[in-house]
Amino acid sequence: MKIGGFKVGDFVVKDVGGKRALILDCKNCVYSASLAEDHHCRFHAIKLLQELEADKIVLAEVYERVYEELQTKMLMEIANFSQKIAIEGVWSYNHLGKPSKECEQYFPERHQMVVRIANDLLSYDPLLSYLTLLQELRKEEEKFRVAGPAYVACTEPYVATLVELKNRFESMLIIIRARKILTELNELPDLVSVYKSLLEADIKPSFIGSKLSFAGIENFELLDEYQIKESTTQIMSDPNKVEKLYFINPPEYSLAPDLYFVYSKTKEIVSSYKPGRTSLSTVATSRRYFERLYESTIKEVAAYNKIAISPDDMSSLAKVVARYSVGYGILEILLNDRKITDVYIDSPIGSRPIYIVHSDYGQCQTNITFTENEANSLISKLRAMSSRPFDEAHPVLDFDLPDMETRVAVIGPPLSPSNSAFAFRLHKMTPWTLEQFIDVNYLNPLAAGLLSFFIDMQATTLIAGSRGSGKTSLLQAVMLEIPQNTRIITQEDTLELPITYLKEIGFSIQRLKTRSPISVSITETEVDPAEALRTALRLGDSALVIGEVRSKEAKVLYEAMRVGAAGNVVLGTIHADSAYSVWDRVVNDLGVPTTSFKATDLIIVARPIRFKGSLSKHRRIVEITEIKKHWNEDPSREGGLLEIMTYDAAKDTLELMEDNLKESELFQKIQKTSGLSVSDIWAEIRLRSSAKLFLVEQKNSLTLPTLLEAEHTSYCSSKLLLMKELMIEEEGKVNYEQLLGQWKNWVTTTVIPDVQKTKSVMKKKDE
Predict the structure, then answer these.
(1) How many angstroms from the chain centroid is the CA of residue 371?
(2) Which among 162, 310, 489, 634 counts the fewest CB atoms within 10 Å?
(3) Torsion angle defined by CA atoms of residues 342, 348, 354 and 359, in that order, rounded to the nearest 10 degrees
(4) What is the pLDDT of residue 187?
(5) In this structure, is residue 186 part of a structural domain?
C-alpha cells in the first residue's frame, strides 16, 4: 500500500505530546532530508499531507529534523490548496479567456502557464509558483495598457483567474510570511535562503529523544553564558516573553559523521548490558567505571573501522554514551547546573518544553522538549533504583537521586489524566550560610547576629514561609550556628539537608528518614514521622532539626518541648506566611494544644518580594517574632506575638523594634539562664553581626566567593567562640571590641591566605 508515493513502512503518524507527528524514514532516501533545501523532499511531504493530517513533521536520518506546528501548517495549507484547485480545474477552457475563435490562439500558452503555476510548481516550490504568478499577472497588465479592446475582451477571464489565484496564494501563511521579502526584490532571489527562514527545523541526533530548539535565537538578548561540564548554557531574554529563556547546546547535538558512526556502533555493543538494581543504585560510584569501559570500546570500534579519533574525542564520546545508557540523558545537564533549583516536565510530555527555576533568573523556559519514550525509560530506571511501584494503583513515585543531590516526584494516571509528569528539586551541594544571606540581602547583619545568638542560647525556632521562600535554606544556615560540640539529630521525609557535607566540616549529626508525605501507598520499610520522632527523643541529649512540621508528629514534638524532653535547641520549618498563621496551622490544623504551642520561642517568616509590582521575585526575611507565654486563647488578640524585627520594603531591610524589646520574655529568660546582662546580650549580638559582616566585606573586596561557604564560616565561628572562651578564662570577662579585633586579625592572616591559595590551585587545575 502506498500513500503519496510512499510505502506505508517509510512513514508513521504517532501521537507525541498530544500532537500528531508525521515521521518520515529518510535513511534510504536519495534526496536530502530537508524541507527547506530540497524541493523533492518538500514535494513528498506535501503529497503525504494531502492524504494525512499532522501537527508536526519529523524527517529521520542520522539527525532528525523536526518541523513544528507553524511550519507544518504552512505545508498543510499548500497541500489543501493544491487539491482544491485540481478539483476546480483552474486550467480549464473557461478560465483561460473568452470562448471565441479569435481568443483561442492564446489558450495553449495560458493553459501551460496555469498548469505550471497551479500544478507543476506548487507542491515543489510554492514560492517560485507564487512569483511566477506575479510575473504573469504583471505581463498581462502591461499588455492591457498597449493592446486593443479585442485583446482585453479575450483576456479578462484569464486575468480574473490569475487575480483569484493570487488572492488565494496570499491568504496562505507561507506567502504571508515571505511576501515582504519577495515583493521588495526586483529579480528572483535565492529561494533556498527564504525557505530556510520559513521552514526552520529543530535538529537533533536520532539516538537522542529530546529535541533542542534554537528558533529565533538571533532576536534574543544574551543575559548570561557559562559552561556546565562540556555543554554551553545561555540565558536569553525574549522581548515578547515574561519569562527568561534557558538554552543549552550539548556536544552530542553536533557530532561529526565519523564520531556519530563510532557512537552508534559503541551503543550497539554496550546495549546488551542491562544494569541491575544493585548497579543502578550505585551509579554515582560506578559511573567512572562505565566511562572507562565505553572509552575502551570506542577505541576498538574506531581502530576496526580505520577512523582517526583523538584521546579527547574518545573521552568526550564515552561520557555521552554513559549519559544516555547508565545516566539520566539530557536531564543530566540540567541536574548538574547547581544554579537551577527546580526542573518541571509537565504532561502530556512533548507538548511543551521543559521549564526550570534558576536561582538568578527565576522561572525559565528551556529549549529542550522531552519525549514520552525518554519519560518511560526514566520511570523504569527510577522504579528499579527505588524498589517502589508506579502504576495506576500507585500513581506517585517520590525518590532521591543520591548521585545528583536531587529529589524527583513523578505522577501518573489516574492522578495525572494526561499521562506522566516530573518535578525535580535540586538540593544545594553545600548549605547556605548567614554570611551568604547577608551578601544577597536576604537579611541584614543585625538579624544574622540576632539569629546566631538565639540559636546558641537554645531558642526553639520555627521558620515559616511559602514554597520557594528559602525556608530550608535558612534552616541549613541557622544549623551552622549550633556549636560543633552539640550533637544534632535531623528528621526529614525529603532528604534536603546536606548532612554528609556537614559531617565533613566537623558537625556530629544523625539523620533519620521518614515516610514521604506524598506517597500514595504505605510501605513497611518506611517509618511513620511521629514514631521516628519518639525514637529521636530517646537517642540522647541532642539538638533536634525537623525538616518540615506537617502532620501528627507536631503533637509529639510539642509535647516533648513542653516537658523538656527535647533538651536542646529545636529547629523546624512549616508552611505559613506569618507568625499568627503558624499558630493557626499548628493549633487548628495539626491539633497541637495552645499550651503546648507556647513552647515555641521564635518564628522567622520568609517571603518572596516583588518590589513595586515587578515580575522579579527577591527572597527576604520579613518577620522575626517572639512567642510570649502569658496568653490563653488567641496570641494576636492577647498580645502573645511580639515582633522583634519587621521588614520595611521601602528601605529593603529588617528593622529592630526597639520599643518591643522591653516586653521580651525571651531576653529575660536568657538573662536568668545565662547570667548575661542586657548590655552583654547586645554586645554578644553585635559581635556576631560584625564578624559576619566582616567576612562578607572581605569576600567582596578580595573576590573570594568561597570564603562564605560553610566550611570557612563555621571554622571562623568556632574560632570566635574559642577565642571568647579563652578570654573569659584568662580575664574573667569579655572585651568584645578587643575580641573582634583579634579575631579579624586571625581571619586576615590565617583563613584568607588559605582560601586564596585554594582558589589559585583550582584555577590552574581548570586551565
Answers:
(1) 16
(2) 310
(3) -20
(4) 59
(5) yes
In a domain, 733, yes or no: no
CATH number of the CATH domain containing 646: 3.40.50.300
Is 382 among the domain residues? yes
For cell 508528629, the residue is: 553
- Copy the grid coordinates of residue 131: 512569483
What does DSSP assign to residue 239? T
Report pTM: 0.71
Residues of the chain with confidence (pLDDT) below 50: 1, 8, 276-284, 521
Q: Domain residues for 308?
A: 259-329
Q: Are residues 54 and 107 in the same domain?
A: yes
Query: How far apart, in whole angstroms, are the C-alpha atoms of residue 241 and residue 342?
Result: 20
Query: So what's the pLDDT on residue 616?
Result: 79
Q: Which amino acid is at 592?
A: V
Cα–Cα distance between 317 and 260 in angstroms, integer?
A: 9
Residue 733: phi and psi, rounded to 5, are: -155, 175
Cell of 702: 578580595
What integer pLDDT is reported at residue 496 of this predicted model?
Answer: 82
- Please tell me whether residues 167 and 34 are part of one structural domain: yes
- Please indicate, yes or no, whether residues 596 and 459 belong to a single structural domain of this protein: yes
Residues 500 and 447 in one domain: yes
pLDDT tens digit string along 341-400? Answer: 999 999 999 888 999 999 889 899 999 999 888 899 899 989 888 888 898 888 999 888
Assess whether 271 and 386 both reside in one domain. no
Rounded Cα distance, 643 and 652, in Å = 17
